[in-house]
Every structure is written in structure tokens, then in C-alpha cells.
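Handoff note, outgoing to incoming analyst
You'll be picking up this chain. Sequence as last confirmed:
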Amino acid sequence: MLQVSSLVSDCKTNTVGLWVTVDEAARPDVVIYYLHGGGFSMGSSYFYLEFLLAWLEILQKAGYHNPAIFALEYTLVPDQIYPLQLQQTVSGYEHLCSIIKDPGRICLAGDSAGATLQLSLLLYLSKASFPGRESEEQQQRMPGFATLISPWPTLVTPKNRDTPSDYLNAESLHLYGRQYAGPTSNLKDPLVSPGVCKDGEWWTRASPSGGFCFMYGSEEVFGPEMLDGLFMLLTLSTVMAIA
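Most recent structure output, in case you need it:
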């Protein structure tokens, strides 16, 4: 029987979320770490509960004995802005590492702004100047895979454009991005807006051991920017599937 409960990982950053698993008493053999979308200012993991439960059932049918999902309830704008959401994302990941012991069994996942936070998390974990962490230790802390649905790589860019099919327009998208980032200078920070990072070595270090799966629509408002990011990763020979 599937069990749904609230999980608190860090009281200092108010990091909470939904913990869904099959056997609460046993260690999971795989964990999906999910971050919801909503322009950083709306949405909740509870809106995704049916989708998450279906994902868990699929994992069981695929042969996993005790799959689990942690869906982060990060603080929304305007209650807080960057860097709290990234701090909560990191805290949630570190907590999952303490539960599952092997980060290679963690799959990062998210849609839209949630996928952006996951890209920020990967850059954060692999940052060369991270204090006291050698490259080998960095790799041991990286997740095994990342499945990102319609990620928003660059928060503000002229490549984001209106389309007949996407109800979201570029003006609203950029408004949400600026509200999350805070000071304009933050928009140039890869940890805020991952798409501005063009450092191939950094992205190589940031790639999960099993690669990426990106899913997006060609007529999404951030479609062109999404394609640019995919081409850059492909040139680095990063393992990925594109649907």
C-alpha cells in the first residue's frame, strides 16, 4: 500500500515536502526528487499527487521493490526570493542522500520553474569552488539521473517568445523570473538562471552519472532557449534522451 506523509528535512530553511513510498520502514531502492513548476510564485506538490502516485506505480511494475518520491514544497515568491528556494532544494537533496545512502539512486525531476531549480542544484553541487570538496567527492554526491519537463533554462532572454500554442507569454515569464531573482545582477548568476552558464567543463561536472531526459514542446515560450541548451550538452557528449 502506498503511504503519503509530510517530511521535514531542515527546520532552519523550512524545507518540507510530500514523502510517498511503499514501505515506510524500509530503505528505498530508488527516489524521485520532484520540484513543481509555477513560475516560482504558484503551485504545490499536492496538485501533482495523482501524477506522482502513477509514477510510483510504474516504478513498482518496472521491478523496484520500494520506490519513493519526495516532492519539495519550496517557499513561493513573493514570500521569499532567491536564494531561499535553492537553499531548500539543496537541503532536500542532502536529506535524501542521508536516507538512501547512494546518491546514484536519486533521480532529479521537475517541470518548468521546478526543473530550473534542479539545474541550479546540479550546478551548485558541482561548483568548482565549493569549499572543502574535491572533484572525486563531488562526483560521489551527484544524482544518478535527471528527468526535466519543460525546463526554463534562462529566466530572462530575448529568445523566449510568444507562440500561438502556449498560454504563457514572454512578458509574464520574464516578470516571474525577475521577481524570483531579486536584484537584476542575479540574472547573470548561473545558480539563479542556469542557462547563462556556457562553461562546458562545469556542465560536464554537473551532469548526473546516467545523464538527462528532457521533455518539452516545440511551441513553448522557452522552446528556442531550450534547444540551445540541449545542443550545448550534446556537444559535451552528455547522455540524454529527448522526447
